């Protein structure tokens, strides 16, 4: 934890300020009322946490979709916090989160905190009336460490509910720098260049079996199809700009409108062209059955050259693969439509919502919105955050550092993953199924009409 | 063509021999067919076992037989599954803890519905009262209510706004007991109704009360049926995910919960699912082996009449 | 969509410390105490009811016998069922508050419009047809194979082992079964070597590969195979027990009369176990109606494989269209009415004959 000393000062200051405000604004008692030890007599190693107060008891349940290795890493971020504050943090994770959270809320048994993976779901959950507005301490942290856009994603109506947690940058196109160098390919700077490159690659062929320039995989269990929605979102944002993108995710621009249809066609020009897909995996029809985890791997044996997937795809490369600008694999961002267009990226992230205003809950929620938490978590590896208090060098990988820089760059036009913002009937259902049908040959106009039909009235 | 006399004399023994031969023949075919069915039914499970030995870095790209030919099969996945912490929480115990939770959940939820169900089954089968048939059919029909629809109303009753036992073992027990009720009543009723009426009527004539009949006749006679149903109830609860997820908490989650989490969330730990699924099969199979002999004596659904 | 991971690398280790064992020990103790207490309460109530004197005793005991089940069902199933029926005739309009984002919900009665939708929308109609195929094939196949197998292995050498082999799938959860069939048996790669066992075998004979779950209309059948694989063990053990209950004398007598094995099977075994067959078919039919996990895990209803139970789950819990989901639940219920009627009839026959 080399970061501790460095980030102590701002974090503690904010947190103290925040908690004082929280004490005034919420009906809960001031958090220090339970204090076991008098202030100024802080346990050794707990200087960073003094601001969160100490408690004799209290368990906070944090409910999340995160499983596996990342779950362990998430829990480890609370080790010192628990020791210093006396609050027990129970992280409970479920792959059925989206279903169970609704059942638990309706049944009157919600968790204390939930890490909600999509703003659209946050909206639904807030709609039930069971989420409490974020305490002032959390809002203060968010105002300090996050951009207004990110705060907006945690806001429903005009009320700020949930602070962002981790983030990812989507729209990377993975490639092999070695292969590019050997064939004299250069990283394209516009969409047209990307298409020209694709044609050149198709003409040249590659070293692997069944070479095609692109490899794509949609399969992801109950979420099959989401990698396709990422393509559409990237193209809409770059081709039609932020206004159309925003009105599209809000439901005002229909899927059947020319802008969105054009994005599908641009994607289809790649995904439906048997000369362009699906390197090492088969024909167009193999897209749906290839799991997204496996889909990029043919790059390694030269069966394909390009793979569109988020920054977290880094974890899929087998051990021993060098991920570097001059290594086995690296990634460039999906290029803009025209030279000189502003750098626009899509991305994802999670939001921490509270279901009660217990002082313990507020303390954990405040901690999770701090730069201290972000630095601890990012140092553990595998993820990044859009928290401006984050030191990019803490990121475990080169691609992670790139992604943090993009997120922290004020000139970047950032838009949240569109399907995550849409109502779940579209964003977590119809959009996924219909783009899957599209690559299987369903007529585009029907596809678009069917998605529009699923939009709740 | 031969003399009729001879035929008549030899007919009977010859026929028997022919029948015997035929029986032997059919039993040979029967054995062959049985072996084929057994093989077909076992191959997928063998596939599961072999796949559970494939190391994680090869899981997505290699078939188990190729991995076996390369000599790379390993038991390390079982080590992870039993002693590592994953799936629900690393501050929670590893899968071994979920295994014990599964026992704590499953055993009482096998006993409760069987006892309550047997009581009701006896009443419906042998105590004439107005509305008896209607009630029984109604309970039978309740089997069709999809579990999912019953979750929220029941959670309101068991949760913090109600009696506050959701998230603890008693909450899970109550939920499972309720959902098991219709099938338990239906199956046990079908068994009890087959008990010869003279036995029960004789006791009634002797002045035995329903309580006495229940304890002295019904329970002893139903033991085999109870044992059979116990196996199925045990299996259903053991393999349930939905009820355990909704009414339980991190303190009570059974095996299916972490296993399902292994498969979910982008499948990073999906390679552990075969090993975990295999571990979760062990105890149900032990239960089956130890109760199997009751199947021979027990006629879960009654037999000769229908 | 959150999801960042380290791949398959080492997972955190967790110690089995004293606290672990004391918690688990006390949980086991709790279960044991609960069982003992439960049985004690039941015994106390029943014997308490036995102390009542006079004519009222029978009534008190009847009440003691059936109250627990009626109470539990009223709370847990009857109320939700009524609620569902009501919900299926409504629509819910949600209007978020501009400041807080909290919805005000207005429930409107819309009559049969949810049902009209369910029976006119082509994908819904396909879903209903698929469900009918499931509830015909799964019970027939599981019971048929289970019956054949039970007959074949009856009194065979190693009967117990043979039974266990077919029973084994019952011990596998739906998650496990989906993994087995989805990624071990049916897995399909358009090019390269096959990792799915079935395609690998077909490859040896120079056939395929076949994309089992995408090939209409056979994919529904391939999904049905999975549930059949699980349910056959259930049918087999129950039918086997019933067969052993057929008095051997009847068979011997028939044998002496010259009936061959096939004739004895049809004229003695089948009529003797008819009651059991009905129960097995009924139970499996109802189980089949409710299974959504297999479709949800393997195809999510794509390639025209959806079934009503899965559609209901998605509508109610993923898409938040609860009234439509409720209508599907009621349709499921209607599907089972013929089964209920049939069982009521055979129930009445049993009561008349005794």
From TrEMBL, chain A:
Keyword Hydrolase: no
Pfam families in the record: SBP_bac_1 (PF01547)
Keyword annotations of the record: Signal, Transport
Domain of life, source organism: Bacteria
Keyword Phosphoprotein on entry: no
Signal sequence annotation: 1-22
Family from the record: Belongs to the bacterial solute-binding protein 1 family.
Protein name: ABC transporter substrate-binding protein
Organism per entry: Demequina capsici
Automatic annotation (TrEMBL), chain B:
Cell compartment(s), UniProt: Cell membrane
UniProt similarity note: Belongs to the binding-protein-dependent transport system permease family.
Lipid bilayer topology: Multi-pass membrane protein
Domain of life where this protein originates: Bacteria
Full protein name: Carbohydrate ABC transporter permease
GO biological process, one term: transmembrane transport
InterPro entries tied to this protein: MetI-like, MetI-like_sf
Entry keyword annotation includes S-adenosyl-L-methionine: no
Gene3D superfamilies, per the entry: MetI-like
ABC transmembrane type-1 domain: residues covered: 99-291
Keyword match Endoplasmic reticulum: no
One Pfam family this sequence matches: BPD_transp_1
Keywords: Cell membrane, Membrane, Transmembrane, Transmembrane helix, Transport
Transmembrane segments: 29-50, 99-127, 134-152, 172-192, 213-238, 271-291
Cellular component, GO, one term: plasma membrane
Automatic annotation (TrEMBL), chain C:
Coiled-coil region list: none
Matching SUPFAM superfamilies: MetI-like
Keywords: Cell membrane, Membrane, Transmembrane, Transmembrane helix, Transport
Main location: membrane
GO terms for cellular component: plasma membrane
Residue ranges constituting the ABC transmembrane type-1 domain according to the UniProt record: 128-345
InterPro entries reported in the protein's UniProt record: ABC_transporter_permease, MetI-like, MetI-like_sf
Family, as annotated: Belongs to the binding-protein-dependent transport system permease family.
Protein name: Sugar ABC transporter permease
């Amino acid at each position: 934890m080399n970061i501790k000393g460095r980030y102590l000062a701002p974090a503690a200051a904010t947190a103290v300020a925040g908690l004082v405000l929280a004490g005034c604004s919420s009906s809960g008692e001031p958090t220090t009322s339970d204090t076991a030890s008098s202030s100024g007599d802080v346990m050794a190693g707990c200087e960073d946490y003094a601001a969160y107060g100490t408690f004799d008891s209290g368990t906070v349940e944090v409910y999340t979709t995160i499983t596996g290795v990342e779950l362990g890493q998430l829990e480890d971020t609370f080790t010192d916090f628990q020791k210093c504050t006396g609050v027990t943090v129970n992280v409970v994770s479920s792959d059925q989160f989206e279903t169970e959270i609704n059942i638990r809320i309706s049944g009157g048994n919600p968790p204390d905190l939930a890490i909600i993976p999509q703003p659209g779901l946050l909206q639904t959950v807030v709609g039930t009336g069971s989420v409490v507005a974020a305490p002032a301490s959390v809002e203060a942290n968010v105002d300090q460490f996050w951009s207004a856009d990110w705060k907006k994603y945690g806001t429903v109506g005009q009320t700020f509910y949930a602070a962002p947690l981790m983030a990812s940058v989507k729209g990377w196109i993975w490639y092999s720098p070695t292969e590019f160098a050997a064939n004299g390919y250069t990283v394209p700077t516009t969409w047209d260049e990307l298409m020209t490159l694709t044609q050149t690659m198709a003409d040249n062929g590659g070293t692997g079996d069944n070479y095609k320039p692109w490899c794509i995989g949609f399969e992801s269990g109950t979420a099959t199809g989401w990698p396709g929605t990422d393509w559409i979102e990237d193209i809409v944002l770059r081709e039609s700009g932020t206004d159309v993108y925003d009105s599209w995710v809000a439901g005002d621009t229909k899927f059947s409108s020319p802008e969105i249809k054009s994005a599908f066609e641009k994607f289809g020009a790649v995904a439906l062209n048997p000369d362009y897909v699906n390197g090492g995996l088969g024909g167009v029809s193999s897209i749906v059955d290839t799991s997204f985890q496996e889909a990029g791997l043919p790059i390694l044996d030269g069966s394909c050259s390009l793979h569109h997937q988020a920054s977290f795809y880094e974890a899929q490369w087998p051990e021993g693969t060098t991920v570097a600008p001059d290594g086995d694999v690296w990634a460039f961002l999906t290029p803009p439509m025209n030279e000189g267009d502003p750098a626009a990226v899509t991305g994802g992230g999670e939001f921490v919502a509270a279901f009660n205003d217990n002082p313990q809950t507020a303390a954990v929620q405040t901690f999770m919105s701090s730069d201290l938490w972000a630095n601890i978590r990012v140092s553990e590896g595998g993820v990044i955050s859009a928290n401006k208090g984050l030191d990019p060098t803490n990121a475990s990988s080169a691609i992670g550092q790139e992604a943090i820089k993009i997120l922290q760059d004020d000139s970047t036009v950032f838009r949240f993953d569109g399907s995550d913002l849409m109502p779940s009937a579209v964003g977590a259902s119809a959009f996924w199924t219909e783009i899957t049908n599209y690559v299987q040959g369903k007529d585009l106009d029907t596809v678009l009409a069917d998605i529009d039909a699923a939009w709740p009235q | 063509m031969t003399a009729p006399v001879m035929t008549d004399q030899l007919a009977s023994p010859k026929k028997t021999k022919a029948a015997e031969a035929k029986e032997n023949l059919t039993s040979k075919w029967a054995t062959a067919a049985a072996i084929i069915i057994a093989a077909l039914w076992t191959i997928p499970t063998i596939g599961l076992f072999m796949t559970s030995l494939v190391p994680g870095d090869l899981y997505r790209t290699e078939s188990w037989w190729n991995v076996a030919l390369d000599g790379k099969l390993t038991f390390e996945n079982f080590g992870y599954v039993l002693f590592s912490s994953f799936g629900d929480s690393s501050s929670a115990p590893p899968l071994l803890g979920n295994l014990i939770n599964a026992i704590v959940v499953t055993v009482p939820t096998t006993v409760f519905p069987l006892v309550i169900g047997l009581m009701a089954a006896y009443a419906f089968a042998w105590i004439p009262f107005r509305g008896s048939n209607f009630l029984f059919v109604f309970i039978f029909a309740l089997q069709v209510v999809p579990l999912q629809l019953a979750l929220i109303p029941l959670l309101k009753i068991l949760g913090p706004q109600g009696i506050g036992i959701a998230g603890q073992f008693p909450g899970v027990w109550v939920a499972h007991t309720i959902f098991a009720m219709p099938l338990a009543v239906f199956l046990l009723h079908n068994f009890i109704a087959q008990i010869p009426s003279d036995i029960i009527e004789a006791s009634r004539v002797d002045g035995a009360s329903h309580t006495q009949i229940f304890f002295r006749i019904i329970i002893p006679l139903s033991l085999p049926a109870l044992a059979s149903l116990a196996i199925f109830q045990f299996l259903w609860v053991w393999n349930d995910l939905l009820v355990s997820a909704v009414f339980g908490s991190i303190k009570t989650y059974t095996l299916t919960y972490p296993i399902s989490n292994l498969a979910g969330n982008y499948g990073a730990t999906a390679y552990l699912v075969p090993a975990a699924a295999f571990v979760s099969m062990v105890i149900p199979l032990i239960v089956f082996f130890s109760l199997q002999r009751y199947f021979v004596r027990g006629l879960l659904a009654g037999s000769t009449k229908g | 969509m959150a999801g960042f991971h380290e791949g398959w690398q080492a997972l955190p280790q967790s110690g089995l410390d004293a606290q672990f064992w004391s918690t688990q020990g006390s949980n086991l103790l709790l279960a044991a105490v609960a069982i003992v207490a439960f049985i004690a309460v039941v015994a106390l109530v029943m014997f308490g009811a036995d102390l009542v004197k006079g004519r009222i005793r029978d009534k008190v005991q009847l009440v003691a016998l059936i109250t627990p089940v009626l109470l539990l069902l009223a709370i847990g199933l009857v109320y939700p069922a009524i609620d569902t029926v009501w919900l299926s005739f409504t629509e819910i309009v949600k209007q978020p508050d501009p400041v807080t984002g909290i919805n005000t919900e207005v429930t409107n009665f819309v009559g049969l419009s949810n049902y009209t939708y369910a029976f006119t929308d082509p994908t819904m109609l396909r879903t209903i047809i698929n469900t009918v195929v499931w509830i015909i094939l799964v019970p027939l196949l599981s019971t048929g194979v289970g019956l054949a197998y039970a007959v074949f292995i009856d009194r065979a050498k190693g009967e117990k082992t043979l039974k266990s082999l077919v029973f084994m799938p019952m011990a596998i959860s739906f998650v496990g079964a989906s993994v087995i069939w989805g990624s071990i048996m049916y897995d399909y790669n358009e090019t390269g070597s096959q990792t799915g066992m079935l395609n690998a075998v077909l490859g040896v004979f120079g056939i395929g590969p076949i994309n089992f779950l995408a090939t209409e209309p056979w994919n529904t059948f391939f999904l049905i195979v999975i549930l059949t694989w699980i349910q056959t063990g259930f049918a087999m053990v129950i039918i086997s027990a019933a067969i052993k209950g057929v008095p051997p004398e009847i068979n011997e007598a028939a044998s002496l009369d010259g009936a061959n094995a096939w004739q004895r099977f049809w004229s003695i075994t089948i009529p003797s176990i008819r009651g059991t067959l009905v129960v097995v078919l009924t139970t499996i039919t109802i189980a089949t109606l409710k299974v959504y996990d297999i479709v949800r895990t393997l195809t999510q209803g794509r390639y025209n494989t959806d079934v009503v139970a899965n559609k209901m789950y998605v509508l109610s819990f993923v898409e938040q269209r609860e009234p439509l989901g409720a209508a599907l639940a009621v349709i499921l219920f209607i599907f089972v009415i013929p089964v209920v009627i049939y069982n009521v009839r055979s129930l009445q026959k049993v009561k008349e004959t005794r």
